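Internal tracking record. Fields below are filled automatically when a chain is submitted to the structure queue. Please do not edit lines marked as system-generated. If the sequence contains nonstandard residues, flag them in the REMARKS field before resubmitting.
Queue: standard
Priority: normal
Entity type: single polypeptide chain
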Amino acid sequence: MNLKIIWILLKKEATQVYNDHSILLALLAAPLLYFALMGSTYFNKDEEKVSVGIVDLDQSQSSKAFLNKINATQKIKIIQACNNLAEAKHGFNSFDVQALVHIPKGFEKKLKAHESTPIALILNNSKFLSSNDVNKAVNLVAMEYAEKSRETFFESKGINPSLAVKKAQPITAQINAVYNPTNNYGNFLLPALLILILHQTLLIGFSESVALDREKNQVALRFKESEYNFLNYILGKTGFYILLYSAYMLLTFLVAYPIFDLPINGSLFSLIIVSILFFIAAIFYGWFVSSFFKSQARAMEIMAFTSYPVFLITGITWSFKEMPWVLQFISNLIPLKPYFEFLKKQTIMGVDNYLYRTEIIQLLILLLIGYVAALLRFKYLQKRELKSKLTQVI
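SYSTEM-GENERATED OUTPUT FOLLOWS
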């Protein structure tokens, strides 16, 4: 390994990036633009007031008190009152409201008689997070009313108030939400999206550069400049990208995370070190795959096309164990899979280091596989170039 040669190759790579607008756009403009768009989209991260419509056929003090309690919860805002379900259907279907609460006639009468008092809750599950918020809030208010009704019933039987409370609520559930206590979508999705943006723009820009070398028949020249040493070549070729995306990674964790109020509950030092290993592994994989393309445009198309499918099979949006075994096998060969699991445990959960040791080992194995694959491909291309020269001489 020759540091002088590596530095010369690194400067040439930086010059090539600077002179190619397509690569420059992918590496410099795209990450910053997507960060701004994704960040602003999920900036609030949670829907505070979900619009709800009501159909109160009882129009009693009890029904109004019940609806006022629902409206007072943090997640719900009643914006529409209708006379019947047919009238309410228009607002529901046009997405003006995300849910409908229907209180039948006789609600107060049955409540006072301690009889079953059903109410209807109609949810628009096409927005499942909003519907979950409404469902939870309405059920909590209903449970509170049911408990109060039982207390009143037991007191009417001559049971003292403190004992009536215990009888009305024989089992109590104490729910403690940890890691994402507000259950908001931003804290769940945004960290993975920021890393995915860096991952994909890195692969797109880097693969364009590798394919451009082949398109311009400069691969042999780069091998010669590296003195046919793999470490000289790969470090010279990838050094610029490692430095650039290490800077992006620091920008993500030190600037973007605080701006978007994203947690880092674990060790920042471990997060930085493992993130650098992840980017190096991604670069090795990227060089190996893009070395098969002789067209810069084709390399960009393939890398851009794979971004969303790769994201889906990493298990960040759906249970990994519920995927077909073929997808599980493919996912385990992608550095994003163990890194996303590590990122979740390190930033959101802040668990002890032995609990993410498996992910680090898997990432190191994938880095080694990527290195060996790139080395073998380098040797193959080198032999082919030498063979081609010998053929031309003969």
